[in-house]
Amino acid sequence: MIEQFVMAYLIEQDRIRAMLPEGYESLRPVLRINSEILDEKTAYLEFNTPVSCDGKRGWLNIGHWTSPEVRFERANGAVAIDTPFLHLTYKGTGTMGGCPAEKDNDGCFFPGEDPEFHPAEQINEKKEFCDCKFIWTFHEGDAGGASIGKTLPAIPEENSTVYPRQELTAENAAAIPCKMVLGSYIVRFERQR
Is 0.85 topped by the overall pTM? Predict the structure, then answer.
């Protein structure tokens, strides 16, 4: 049984536009952290942003890590997920629902020397909404925030500021301030191989 913990937060869209590789278009002012507990010893963490490219819409992978760099702990009904550069906590609220962003997701783009596209995984189980907190710790002043008890939409922003080009790295993206946490959930499912 996979436990997937997802949270998304609002950022200034022009900041992420300045980092996107050629051919990718930012869809919404969002950064998303997707964590998975694969078994009682193994966890996986992914950091991404919504984009379109080559006629597909999905998530552009900014970085991904696995155990032992990604650790987790359960205490008092909450799950803490920790790395040397990110701290997250999730606590289910008992409220179940779905995620609207999944209806606009063909899969995940993995850029690099040998770019890959992974089609979206079909998950039919209901999501349990969560309270969550996070903070990036690459550098002092990196993004952090806490949920406010509801899920909010992310509306695309018009271009208004041109920032200097930066490489798309987790460290650079984590420095973009969080305006607010848009929502978070847990979903438990059996992965189809």
Answer: yes
